[in-house]
Amino acid sequence: xxxxxxxxxxxxxxxxxxxxxxxxxILLSDRQHMPIFFxxxxxxxxxxxxxxxxxxxxxxxxxxxxxx
Length: 68
Description:
mainly alpha
């Protein structure tokens, strides 16, 4: 039975890692996708890091419960 618990733990760790990677990919979108959320980035692309911070704060404050 120990093998089953080791496999379950490994799958759980990889699932958690996948959630983190997905969240970071969504939060830190590239320059081509961020103007969807912040239209001014088309003219002011140097503000991209600021938009990442704004989006992160918004997600923490206003994110609805998401179940994976």
